[in-house]
């Protein structure tokens, strides 16, 4: 297993944030890697090593609610102001003027917000699977409910009784067994939704992840795991300790974030890269169609034969692209 650099801590934005760093401190602009759900800075272990060895300064935090970082109690402490403010505070702690922000999954939503909210601190943005969209025409939770129904996982995550938190928290190993796998290869022309063994079609199509996990049995899953046993243990041990509520609270701010972004200009005015994964069922490459309207200085790159966990499924390809783009655009 790849060893992580030593864990360090920063006081930022009212919390203590754990982070990892590699590469020469003199390198600018540094690259900040922002993970998604249910992940950790550890999800970037391959990129931390590759970028650091390539002479690029790289920083990967456990974000608010995750891993070694604080998990405040109030739900609204996980809104977009807080999540972007944490990253600004991390730069302040490290005395960094500007950085390139790279985000996967939920981390992608956060990094695309950085140049909108903190333009003076952003040199460039890279979305991994997560595209940049304009503000939704209506409350996103209402949109998800309309399109996918009440069982769609993001709609379920709004449950004040926190039943999804309990399901994941009582089945931590099952959760990572089920999620962290390569998708089944699909013949050309078939839908992008991926089957998950032992789960009914309605649960799959509605993205009903809590029910999927509750009924999941790894013995009947033909898909290939992405993580070694040792790597999986890192996630299992960490989430056994922290639970899932911190990360799920990010989803509980969809409506608040939407309401509070009403006056925001959604154009991204920095060099940007969009890395797409061919077989991502939740964030397919087609989700990035038309991004150029909001992100004029955009390069797109498709990772073939990868599902959702792109930086862990195709680590060498993702690292090589990040290094190549960073050198091309920033020297």
UniProtKB/TrEMBL annotation:
Keyword match Hydrolase: yes
Protein EC: 3.3.2.10
Domain of life: Bacteria
A Pfam family recorded for this sequence: Abhydrolase_1
Keyword Glycoprotein attached: no
AB hydrolase-1 domain sequence ranges: 29-315
Keywords annotated in UniProt: Hydrolase
GO MF annotation: an example: epoxide hydrolase activity
PANTHER family in the cross-refs: EPOXIDE HYDROLASE
Protein name (record): Epoxide hydrolase A
Gene: ephA_3
